[in-house]
Amino acid sequence: MEPGSSVPDLDSPRQAISRGERIAWASLDFANSGYTTVVLTAIFNAYFVSVVMANQPEATLVWTAILAVSYLLVMVLAPWLGAYADAHACKRRLLAWATVVCALATLGLSLVGPGDLWLAAVLLVISNLAYASHQDLAAGFLSELASPRQTGRLSGFGWAWGYLGGLVSLVLSLAWFLQGGRWLGMPLTDQQRVAGSLAATALIFMVVGLWAISRLKERAPPTGVNWRGAWGRLLGGWQQMQAQPTGLGLRQFLWCVLVYQAGVATVIALAAIYAQQVMGFGMDKTVVLILVVNLAASLGAALFGLLQDRLGHGPSLFWALVLWLGMVATAGLGQTEAWFWVAAHLAGLAMGASQSGARAAVASLAPADQQAEAFGYWGVAVNGASVLGPLAYGLVTWLSDNNHRLAIGLTGLFFLGGLVLLRRVRWPTADDPHPTRP
């Protein structure tokens, strides 16, 4: 095939997609979800605030600032990475590098102890940069493995399988917390508990991730385009979208993602910290909490994946954002632990639905031969949101004498903004080549 030609018909016998390859692609989510679950959501973030920074008043702000730096780097690199992957048809090779780097940096975090702020910051930036790159590159395979009418289903399956991967890491962590002292013949320190959890997470990422990559095929041909000019093309392409029906819909949707994903990123980065600082949860109970959230998220991703293919991207994402608003109201206003557990279930359902839904929507709106570049835009939006949301939360807690209830309440504004912008997105339909509003 000539450079720049479109992706071949996936339904032809020559390009038949095996069920095993789709499972392998979903296993990329299984591999990397342990990182975001253990490092960003459940264990290391709370350990950073309570142990590394000894619950200093600015600890939450420092945590969110480190994440902001890592996501800013991802924003800068994502367009070049996507364009390079398109130019050389090398998503598999780049995925392998991202897998190894993230796994090794995660293992390095196990060395972080009380007061090791700079070591934690450097390793966190490296690991999160590799993780985010892994996620963006994996998303570039979606349109190669599913038809436009099946992207929601396959994306939902990937997220659901991914959340189960996070659960495996959490179950191993909980087993280590409860039994590690008996195995070693002495009580575990907080650092030893976290170190064992991080080691298991890194091992799963490395083994499952490299296995999954070995099963994938690179179907998109090299475009031969100069990847160094990616940012110039990105900015130029952003302007050109305005004149294209499908491009206009993608542009409108990415603005929506930037806003509502800021709220999602906040919950991911601060859930365990909120549980410990507001509800008084210990590390064991926090792990159980995130186990519940991941189970609900897996269910939400699978159910909303099916719903998305039936109802369309707009309506299904609308209900996902309504769930998020219900979660914020329940967590912010509920005064008892029972209400907090209700909020955890709502957060899981909404998280699975909104994250899976966004990936499928981007794949549906983007041209078949520009998937990696389109997911470069998506990466900029998602990582920009990951700077905006958690940093806003950190600033609110710092300015309000660690009022986490106020911070989570204001997070709801991101979901409200997402609902408003979602109504403006113009979606293409099968019967009408001119996009219409949901």
Structural notes for this entry:
By secondary structure, this protein is mainly alpha-helical. Helix content is 78%, strand content 0%. The protein is built from 15 helices and no strands. The radius of gyration is 21 Å and the shape is globular.
What secondary-structure arrangement, pairings included, does this model have?
Blueprint: H1 19-42, H2 44-52, H3 59-88, H4 91-109, H5 117-139, H6 142-145, H7 151-184, H8 190-215, H9 230-240, H10 245-278, H11 283-311, H12 313-333, H13 337-365, H14 371-399, H15 404-422
Domain module tally: 1
Strand content: under 5%
Largest sheet: none
C-alpha termini separation: 37 Å
> On the 0-100 scale, what is the average pLDDT?
81
| Count of DSSP-assigned helices | 15
Shape: globular
Rg (C-alpha, Å): 21 Å
Following the backbone from N to C, one meets helices and strands in this order, namely: HHHHHHHHHHHHHHH
Unreliable runs: 1-14, 431-438
Number of strands: 0
CATH topology label:
Growth Hormone, Chain: A
Report the CATH architecture.
Up-down Bundle
Helix content: over 70%
Q: What's the CATH class label?
A: Mainly Alpha
The secondary-structure class comes to mainly alpha
CATH superfamily: MFS general substrate transporter like domains
